[in-house]
Amino acid sequence: MGTVQAVNISDRKGEKKHEVEAIVLREDFGVEDDAHGGSERQVSLLAFERIEDMKKDLATLKVGDFAENITTTGIAASDLKPGMRVTIGDSVLLEITQIGKVCHNGCAIRKEVGYCIMPKEGVFGKVVQGGDVKKGDGIEIVG
User: Fold this and answer.
1) How many angstroms separate the Cα of 62 from the Cα of each of 43, 58, 66, 83?
2) What share of the chain is helix, strand, coil (3-state, %, to 5)?
3) Engineered SS bond to 74: which of 2, 26, 79, 112, CB 3.0-4.6 Å?
4) Rounded CA gap, 124 and 68, in Å?
5) Bridge-partner residues for 99, per DSSP?
6) pTM
7) Is 128 exposed, middle or buried (0-12, 13-18, 19+ CB in 10 A)?
8) Where are the domains of the chain?
9) String of b and e for 2-32 (b: at least 16 CB within 10 Å)?
10) Which helix (H) or strand (E) holds 86?
11) Which class does domain 2-141 fall in?
């Protein structure tokens, strides 16, 4: 079982997200008040451990810098496959739709460090059952 390390949103696509106290996930939409809500990749997750690994190359990295909505601990992309489902907190159910993504050329982290972890480590899902998500919530693979 994993844990939510942080929840993050942004007003516009293509920019870093900022940490907030809680997010609301809406069924078949994604994160309310987030620029990516309603898009193909409704919710993004990234392991905090991988952000920490990258700090050896860019010490200023923090949660949200990879535009992830949910920063996790204890669950990695390697644990997940498309079609699997995860529960978060008391009510949220996500179906994993994609592992990794094509990193856009304008990625500030790639420009500075020479590589980015999202193409292999970013996890994307669709909201099957919505609800609130906050730091400290549990995350569990259910299928």
Assistant:
1) 18, 10, 9, 29
2) 15, 40, 50
3) 2
4) 9
5) 123
6) 0.92
7) middle
8) 2-141
9) bbbbbbbbbeeeeeebeebeebbbeeebbbe
10) strand 85-88
11) mainly beta
**What are the backbone dihedrals phi and psi of residue 97, each rounded to the nearest 5 degrees, phi first?**
-110, -25
Query: How does pLDDT run across 16-25, given as a tens digit for each residue?
Result: 899 999 999 9
Tokens 């929840």 belong to: 7
Q: What pLDDT score does 106 carry?
A: 61
Q: Tokens 């190359």 identify what position?
A: 57
Output the six-digit token pair for 121. 């480590």
Over residues 114-138, the pLDDT tens digits come to 777 888 889 999 999 999 999 999 9
Tell me, what amino acid is at 118? M
